[in-house]
Amino acid sequence: DVNAMQWISLAVVSSRGGHGALSTAMHAHYRAFSTATRRHTVMHAWVIDKYGDNSVLRFTKNASFPIIDYPNEVIVKVHAAGLNPIDINMRGGYGAATLKMKRDPLNIKRTDSEFPLILGRDVSGVIMECGLDVSYFKPGDEVWAAVPPWKQGSLAEFVVLSANEVSHKPKSLSHVEAACMPYVASTAWSVLVNTGGLNKDNCAKKRILILGGSGGVGTFAIQLLKSWGAHVTVTCSQNAEHLVRGIGADDVVDYTARPVEKTLKSLENFDLILDSIGGETESWALSLLKPWCGAKYVTLVTPFLRNTDQLGLADGMMRSGVTIATKALKHLTKGVHYRWGFFAPSGSALDEICELVDAGKIRPVLQEQFAFPRVPRAFQKVEGGHARGKTVVTVARVQGE
Ligand SMILES: NC(=O)c1ccc[n+]([C@@H]2O[C@H](COP(=O)([O-])OP(=O)(O)OC[C@H]3O[C@@H](n4cnc5c(N)ncnc54)[C@H](OP(=O)(O)O)[C@@H]3O)[C@@H](O)[C@H]2O)c1
Fold this sequence. Notes:
The structure is a single chain. It contains 15 helices and 15 strands. It is globular and about 60 Å long. Helix 12 runs antiparallel to helix 13. The protein folds into two domains: 210 residues, Quinone Oxidoreductase, Chain A, domain 1, CATH 3.90.180.10; 158 residues, 3-Layer(aba) Sandwich (Rossmann fold). The strands form three sheets. Strands 3, 4, 5, 6, 7, 14 and 15 form a seven-stranded mixed sheet that branches. Bound molecules: NADP nicotinamide-adenine-dinucleotide phosphate (NAP). InterPro entries: ADH-like_N (IPR013154), ER (IPR020843), GroES-like_sf (IPR011032), NAD(P)-bd_dom_sf (IPR036291), RTN4IP1 (IPR037397), YIM1/Zinc_Alcohol_DH_Fams (IPR050700).
């Protein structure tokens, strides 16, 4: 698009003015510059204008071009975008109350609503433009990132992110391969490191159980934990055993040959359980932990966003607070820790993961890739469940991919 390209080149020139803190006057000027030109700048994107089923996905050539509002932001040209279950859930309105509150007030003010909303949480691409405070990246750098759910997503030609959410992409991966990882990697990192207290130096003698080993989070977490020397047991369907063993799982339990808890109970107890399944797993999983040893159960399936959707922000957060406190206390009396785990964006975590990837210790598990015009088919695929790794959409065509 000619307008977009003109805007990009103008913006790139203006943002090369230097680094360091942006004065208020300069910032105001910069914002005014961006806002004034926005009306004439558009890009291709898949958007939704209301929540619903797959039919709400709409392709447009006129989506608003992203704007650098803060000096620490970068605009990334998207080469590949990965899909996650949260995209399916958000398409249906999941988390709308909380995410709307978290969205940048500048954006909400501009449009008065979250629509048109762009989904897509993983991005691999190339830096197009940097804010004045950005020194770690420069235009042309190949990067990967997980786009937080409260920001416009990656199913578009361009996406704007804070520089601290972005990381240099592993050199050993193509854009499509790189787009398999950031969201599940950032989630696994947040859950295992920040919530679970694990790291590369304390895993050697630890026994970890992953409930749900064959999907996006599971296939990444297995590899991260194995690279840190942990012993990893996973549950999955029988037809996923080959996949999870191939990426390092030590013990594999087929959850379809019920009762799975009985089989797991016959194994030595665990130091940490990562639960990506939820529901009734909570009723038996905590009894598999080593008691009074600081062992933790961390679940990714929490009622946090559902509560705020149903009860509103204040009451929903109150309900979540009471639920987590009650459960944590109940399990503490039995000598184990109960925790909720959440995705957290982190460029520095992706930097560390990049090293593991380039060292050949973690590889992408790409199940299927779709061209940009086939985004609704990609959503159907993810919505169908039974993931074996990741689903990725190619946005920009790259030679050799
Ligand atoms: N809290 C957060 O911030 C956060 C962040 C990321 C993800 N999540 C949640 O974490 C969950 C996993 O995410 P994901 O990206 O890994 O999903 P995914 O890619 O769709 O994978 C789910 C996997 O679980 C398997 N599975 C289904 N039922 C199972 C069971 N009872 N036991 C063992 N495996 C089972 C599925 O295969 P089969 O059905 O063929 O067995 C599939 O391979 C999702 O619910 C997601 O919403 C939460």
